[in-house]
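Structure (tokenized):
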């Protein structure tokens, strides 16, 4: 049986489709991938982080943005929507657009069963091509577990893991300290879906 021919899109076609689309999608190497919506717990975690970061970064030359600001990775052509990004100094946009940035310092992804391998593997590898990128947080929404990666001056990345609600992590590039109890505030563990 013949496989249907795959349609490959140019970046310009992808961006035009995004403008008229009812949903967000990711673009990489000519292919477009629909992005699924987040659970209630996913949204609680992002809200908690966004509020804490917004307050902590006020007046410090950095801003936090959640979910709707697109990221373009110049070196490999990935277009995607991280769950949360922190940008310091000026926002740098791709030419001719005000909805797609290129210079995050911190990227946060809230893990789901369907995306956790991609977020830890290929996506992290693609993100590492961003020159300004210093810190990566992967937050599990089905249990208390945060993976924090920090880029050293020599380009190597180190991992610290946090598994206790009383733990506090420090995001080094922005000198931001936050307790896991604040990240997970309001998360409904009884109705936590573990099979997304």
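Design, position by position:
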């Amino acid at each position: 049986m013949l496989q249907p021919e795959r349609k490959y899109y140019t970046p310009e076609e992808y961006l035009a489709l995004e403008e008229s689309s009812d949903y967000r999608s990711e673009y990489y190497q000519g292919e477009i991938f629909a992005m699924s919506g987040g659970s209630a717990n996913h949204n609680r975690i992002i809200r908690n982080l966004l509020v804490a970061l917004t307050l902590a970064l006020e007046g410090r030359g950095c801003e936090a943005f959640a979910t709707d600001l697109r990221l373009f990775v110049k070196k490999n052509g990935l277009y995607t929507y991280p769950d949360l990004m922190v940008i310091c100094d000026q926002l740098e946009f791709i030419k001719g657009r005000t909805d797609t940035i290129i210079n995050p310092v911190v990227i946060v992804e809230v893990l789901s069963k369907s995306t956790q391998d991609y977020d830890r593997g290929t996506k992290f590898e693609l993100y590492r091509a961003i020159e300004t990128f210093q810190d990566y947080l992967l937050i599990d929404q089905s249990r208390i577990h945060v993976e924090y990666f920090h880029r050293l001056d020599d380009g190597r990345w180190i991992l610290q893991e946090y598994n206790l609600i009383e733990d506090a992590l420090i995001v080094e590039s922005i000198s931001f300290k936050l307790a896991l109890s604040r990240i997970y505030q309001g998360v409904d563990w009884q109705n936590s879906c573990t099979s997304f």
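Reviewer-requested clarification: The CA atoms of residues 142 and 189 lie 7 Å apart. The chain has a mean pLDDT of 92.
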